[in-house]
Amino acid sequence: MLAPSVGPDAAVRGYLDHLLVERGLAANTLTSYRRDLTRYRQVLAATGRTDIGQVTPADVAAYVARLREGDDDHPPLAASSAGRAMAAVRGLHAYLFAQGLTAADPARPVPPPAPPRRLPKAISITDVERLLDAAGPGEGTDPRLLRDRALLEFLYATGARISEVTGLDVDDVELDGEPAVRLDGKGGKQRIVPLGRYATAALDAYLVRARPALAAATRRSAVPALFLNARGGRLTRQGAWGVLVAAAGRAGIAGVSPHTLRHSFATHLLDGGADIRVVQELLGHASVSTTQVYTLVTVEKLREVYAASHPRALG
Fold first, then answer.
1. One fold for both 8-98 and 125-308?
2. Strand order in the sheet with 180-184
3. In the CATH hierarchy, which fold is given to the domain comprising 125-308?
4. Which residues in 124-159 are b (16+ Cβ under 10 Å) and which e?
5. pLDDT means per 10 residues in the chain (315 residues)?
6. Where in the sequence numbering do the catalytic residues fall?
7. Other C-beta atoms within 10 Å of 201: how many?
């Protein structure tokens, strides 16, 4: 049985009535849906679609592209704004199909607008050094300062996730011979990451002069955790985050998150000529495609250097 012929105007009116009466949408939400569907209806009319049942996935995809590109009467929309406008169109066609007013739902196979790929945030090597210095001195007697310096040195030296670091036990770290750490990544995948001279020295100072003092603060049995809090228990993710944010504040570096040192670790390795497969293994990525986002960062740096250095790079 063929679906009845329904014009775009009637289809939109029926759907908006459904949202008002059956769904009880708020007035502001209904106004947004009406605005988005009015534009959609106008686009369909301009392409000669007089029956909503004639709309194809290609028509819907073209509408999404038009939202992103803009036209004479509308500026281009960001992916998030286009996605909200697309939600009204998806709702319209799903309703019409469920009511038997169309034979198919042409919006269903059309993917929503893809948001722009955000590049990982990395800070410069100079800022890393400022951050580490702000965490605490490499020498001294304050147990918490020695721990904070060792924690941030370790994060930058290994590129480890904050949860991986706070989950470490003392036995997971080897400081003699060839210093390294065994990390438990996502999916239970283990990896061995070498430790550089600065991280090794900071960890050694922490383990010898600070950790015993922190461990003495608890009345419980010995805690195997590598990094301890002031009460002698395992340092939590939130506690480690606080150490990082406090150091960043003292260093005057804004926008630092627990992932900042991981991003900086990967970016600085690639800038220094490391093979992407090596960086993939160090980060514990299952696929090299995940690691490749960092190459976009380094390409941006190459463009900046080229533009500033080549005599005919700029007009």
1. no
2. 173-174, 180-184, 190-194
3. hpI Integrase; Chain A (1.10.443)
4. eeebbebbbebbbebeeeebebbbbbbbbbbbbbbb
5. 74 91 84 92 89 92 90 84 90 93 93 73 92 82 92 96 94 94 86 94 95 87 91 94 95 89 92 90 86 76 73 65
6. 161, 186, 259, 262, 285, 294
7. 18
The predicted structure's pLDDT at residue 1: 46
Residue pair 170/228 in contact by the 8 Å Cβ criterion: no
Kindly compute the dihedral angle of the four CA atoms of residues 272, 273, 278, 281, in this order, to the nearest 10 degrees: 40
Whether 236 and 229 have beta carbons less than 8 Å apart is answered as yes
Sequence ranges of the domains in the chain: 8-98, 125-308
- Which residue type, as a one-letter code, is found at position 294? Y
Q: What is the CATH code for 8-98?
A: 1.10.150.130
User: What distance in Å separates the CA atoms of residue 112 and residue 217, rounded to the nearest whole number?
Assistant: 54
